[in-house]
Amino acid sequence: MRYLKALESIGRVTALLLLLSVAVSNSYAEITVQLHANESLPFFSKTMQLNGMAGEIIHAASKAAGITSIIEFRPLKRMIDDDSNNDLGNPAFYMGTQEFSAIIPIAVYHMAVFHYLPNHPRHPEIHAVKDLEGHKIGVLKGTLVDRSQFEKAGIVFEESYSQESLFKKLQKGRIDLVIEINLVGKTMITRLFPSDRESFGSVLIPKSESPIAILLAEKQLNGNALGVRYRQGLQKIRLSGEYETILNKYYGSDGLPEHYIRAMERFTIIYNDGTE
């Protein structure tokens, strides 16, 4: 009897260990997550290898974390209006209308003012809002989060859901300036006006850095835990040097904007929800 009871005890312990091992295995199992992005060359694009710079970062961090991330492309307005999907972009564009279970900054972008030299030969000096007075400025719709200070200064904005439309208007003189993400604007100009790209000038806007982040929907299953895994994967590729390799591929000879890494660290702290 003692022998049988010992076997039963061992059996119960073995079963418990098996259950625990399955639970641990499932918690780190490969999972698939669907993410939505707006076409924004070179950060996100369905035509570029691994979906562009931010796409490469996401896929690399996902692989390191045991996640399969699928990036689908949608119009920006649809992304902003839909509160049920996982978005990719600047959290500030969405947080006014949506709640998220986790926000994971993956990269930093900087804004620039673009102008067409034949129409405006002098580089605009941007130190304060008043420096934009008297200009008609093109911006991507949804990106101007707080326009009150601009409106007080009498600055006129023309919004569009298409970067292509903005730069075509800039070249034709229908608008004076375009405020756009630095890398996005340069890529768009090269694609639209390959033989005339030297006719466009740009100036970085001081202290304009903002995050590009994975925004997991409030309804995303196990969103907090998933956010932890994304952060762990991102940390792995930063430590291995893969993250820096991806950045250098896209920034090229221009190099990273000043304080890029410092800004990345700051946004990581700001959006850390304390689950780690």
Unreliable sequence segments: 1-27
Oligomer: single chain
Distance between the termini: 49 Å
Secondary-structure class: alpha/beta
Extended strand count = 10
Structurally, the number of domains stands at 2
The succession of helices and strands, N to C, reads HEHEHEHEEEHEHEHEEHHH
* Biggest sheet layout: 5 strands, mixed
Q: CATH topology of the largest domain, which one?
A: D-Maltodextrin-Binding Protein, domain 2
Briefly, what CATH class of the largest domain? Alpha Beta
Physical arrangement of strands within the biggest beta sheet: 7-6-8-5-9
CATH architecture descriptor of the largest domain: 3-Layer(aba) Sandwich
**Shape field:** globular
The CATH superfamily of the largest domain appears as Periplasmic binding protein-like II
On the 0 to 100 scale, the average pLDDT is 84
As a percent range, the share of strand residues is 15-25%
Q: What's the total helix number? A: 10
Assign a percent range to the helix content.
Answer: 40-55%
Give a verbal description of the structure.
With 276 residues, this protein is of the alpha/beta class. The chain has two domains: 30-109 and 210-270, D-Maltodextrin-Binding Protein, domain 2; 111-204, 3-Layer(aba) Sandwich (D-Maltodextrin-Binding Protein, domain 2). It has helices spanning 2-27, 52-65, 76-81, 91-94, 148-152, 163-172, 182-192, 223-240, 242-251, 260-270; strands at residues 31-37, 67-73, 87-89, 100-109, 111-116, 136-140, 156-160, 177-181, 200-204, 210-217. The strands form three sheets. The chain has a five-stranded mixed β-sheet with strand order 7-6-8-5-9. Strands 3-10-4 form a three-stranded antiparallel β-sheet.
